[in-house]
Amino acid sequence: MSPASPSRQSAEPQISTTLKWASDGELSALDLERILARLSAVDPAAEALSAQLQPQR
Asked: What is the pLDDT of residues 44-53, one digit of tens each?
């Protein structure tokens, strides 16, 4: 069997990709924060959006 065979399991742990939604249909705050953090790493516009959504302290 070749190393790229689909029947072999990866040694890497599986990351959950399930998103949670609030009862009002909005994405959960935690999932929104995680998505924006990933986008901010590659897109300056997403970084600006993330800053706008942060609660004022």
From this structure: 887 777 777 7
